Amino acid sequence: MRPVSIIVPCRNEAGAIRGFALSLERQQLDGLDWEAIIADGMSDDGTRAILDQVAARNPRIRVIDNPKRTVSPGLNEAIRQSRGEIILRMDVHSTYAPDYVARCVEALDASGAANVGGAARPVAKGLIPEAIAAAYQSAFGCGGARFHQSDFEGYVDTVTYGCWPRAVFEEVGLFDEQLPRNQDDELNLRIVRSGRKIWQSSKIVSWYQPRRTLRQLARQYFQYGFWKVAVIRKHRLPGAWRHLVPAAFFGALAV
After folding, report:
1. 148 falls in which pLDDT band (50, 70, 90)?
2. Which residue, of 15, 62, 159, 166, has the greatest Cβ tally within 10 A?
């Protein structure tokens, strides 16, 4: 079995890190030669102390510094310090089915794709979070993006988180450190433009916690929209044509 490196960006996640660590430690990893590298963005809320405790009880989990603090540099440093032939990303604000890692490796081997992942499945409690989750799964609300469709299996333009052969990063490059947001979309755009494929498997299961208030949601999607423009300017091409719908909508209103 090829060695697998799980990479995780993290900063000031004291409220979520224990739940994530439990989800990681429950992974069915028998038969896998694995390691987990958590890049801490110089947390100052107690997160680092919790991470050190987690690493102390499991020698396969390692915590490294991310002095630049944002996601892309943390992911890149974790990749540089990893040894796996397969690189698999996890995020702290999600929980994962016990076979998540195993299913990612299985899909990568079976599909021959350059990146594989599962759908973004929101889980929420309360009126507003549940409404946000419903919109998140709506074709109208999300522009028809297939990574919002939990039962879809096939080729896509992007997936949640991701699992790659190391060779992909050697060929197309690491995450763009100039992008605080949308760095995964931009990497996937480079992968697709290089002629490689991205595969979504319905068997790869994780659950994402959407924002709890409309204010938080507005701030999140404003940032997504702002940095999607940066990706389009960089490549002279949108990651997907649905990214142009908001501009077309407001243009039509203006006319």
Report:
1. low
2. 159
